[in-house]
C-alpha cells in the first residue's frame, strides 16, 4: 500500500504527490507495454464525444426543424436515435427504452428518478447531484410549480405540469418548446441552445 | 447487454451518490489533469481484463467508506479523485499489474526530480 509521504500532506504538496503517483503508475504501465500513450485519451474520448447531452440536443433540434422526425421521436424515441449518426449502444441496444414527453403551451413536463442509473444519460449526459436527492424528488411530486419556479421556470397557472418517473424500464426525458425568434436558425445553432436541464424539464430554452 | 464497456462503467458508477464521479452540465468534471489520467487508467485496465470492474467499484466504495469513517462529513479536505487514485493503486497492485515496490520507487523518483535541489 503506497505510503502517505509525511511532510507532503497539504495543498500544493498534496497536489504534486497525487500528480506524481498517477504519472508513476502511467509510466510503469507504458513501460510494461500494458497501455500506450493513447489508451487514456481513447477512454476519455468516449465520454467526451460519444455520450452526452449533445446527443439529446441533436435529437431535439432535428425534431424542431423536421415535423416527421418529431412524430417519430415522440412515437418511438429509440427508432429516432437509430436515424441519427450515433455510436453503437445509443439506440436501445441495451434494452433501454427511452420516451420523450413534449412540452406545449398547455403542458410542461419534468422528469425525476429513483436511481441515478435510470437516468437517460446517453442523451442527456451524466445527471447532476441534486437530481437524485430524495428531497428534490419528493418536492417535485408534491409541489412541482414551486420547485420549478426555484429553478427559474415560471409557469402560468393554466399550464398543467406532468411529472415523469424515469426508471430502468422507461427512461423519460423532455422535448422542450422551440423558443420564439429562432425561425432562421440552423439545426446546429438550435442544438447549441439546448442544455441538459432543459431536457429534464427544469429549464426553458432561451435565445 | 452493454455494447460498450464505457457505457457499462458509467451506468454502474451512477448507482449511488457517494460513488458517482463529479460532473457538471452533463459531463464528467475533471479539475486537474491527473484526475483524467486516473479515471482513464482505471477503466482501461479493467477493459483489458486485468481486473473485474466490480472489483474496482467495491475497492472505491471501501476507500470512500474508510475516509468517511475517519473524517468529519463536512471536512473540506474531501477529494473524490484522491479516493479514486488510492483505489486504483490498490487494485493495480492486487491484480499483479504492477508491484508495490516498483510503484513506490517510481513515485519517489518523480518527486525527487521535481524537488528543488538542496546544496
From TrEMBL, chain A:
<dbReference type="InterPro" id="IPR018141">
    <property type="entry name" value="Nitrile_hydratase_asu"/>
</dbReference>
<feature type="binding site">
    <location>
        <position position="113"/>
    </location>
    <ligand>
        <name>Fe(3+)</name>
    </ligand>
</feature>
<feature type="binding site">
    <location>
        <position position="116"/>
    </location>
    <ligand>
        <name>Fe(3+)</name>
    </ligand>
</feature>
<feature type="domain" description="Nitrile hydratase alpha/Thiocyanate hydrolase gamma">
    <location>
        <begin position="18"/>
        <end position="203"/>
    </location>
</feature>
<keyword id="KW-0408">Iron</keyword>
<dbReference type="Pfam" id="PF02979">
    <property type="entry name" value="NHase_alpha"/>
</dbReference>
<protein>
    <recommendedName>
        <fullName>nitrile hydratase</fullName>
        <ecNumber>4.2.1.84</ecNumber>
    </recommendedName>
</protein>
<feature type="binding site">
    <location>
        <position position="117"/>
    </location>
    <ligand>
        <name>Fe(3+)</name>
    </ligand>
</feature>
<dbReference type="InterPro" id="IPR004232">
    <property type="entry name" value="CN_Hdrtase_a/SCN_Hdrlase_g"/>
</dbReference>
<dbReference type="InterPro" id="IPR023900">
    <property type="entry name" value="CN_Hdrtase_asu/SCN_Hdrlase_gsu"/>
</dbReference>
<keyword id="KW-0456">Lyase</keyword>
<feature type="binding site">
    <location>
        <position position="118"/>
    </location>
    <ligand>
        <name>Fe(3+)</name>
    </ligand>
</feature>
<dbReference type="GO" id="GO:0018822">
    <property type="term" value="F:nitrile hydratase activity"/>
</dbReference>
<comment type="similarity">
    <text>Belongs to the nitrile hydratase subunit alpha family.</text>
</comment>
<dbReference type="GO" id="GO:0046914">
    <property type="term" value="F:transition metal ion binding"/>
</dbReference>
<keyword id="KW-0479">Metal-binding</keyword>
<dbReference type="InterPro" id="IPR036648">
    <property type="entry name" value="CN_Hdrase_a/SCN_Hdrase_g_sf"/>
</dbReference>
From TrEMBL, chain B:
<dbReference type="InterPro" id="IPR042262">
    <property type="entry name" value="CN_hydtase_beta_C"/>
</dbReference>
<dbReference type="InterPro" id="IPR008990">
    <property type="entry name" value="Elect_transpt_acc-like_dom_sf"/>
</dbReference>
<protein>
    <submittedName>
        <fullName>Nitrile hydratase accessory protein</fullName>
    </submittedName>
</protein>
<dbReference type="InterPro" id="IPR023808">
    <property type="entry name" value="Nitrile_Hydratase_acc_put"/>
</dbReference>
<dbReference type="InterPro" id="IPR049054">
    <property type="entry name" value="CN_hydtase_beta-like_N"/>
</dbReference>
<dbReference type="Pfam" id="PF21006">
    <property type="entry name" value="NHase_beta_N"/>
</dbReference>
<feature type="domain" description="Nitrile hydratase beta subunit-like N-terminal">
    <location>
        <begin position="28"/>
        <end position="111"/>
    </location>
</feature>
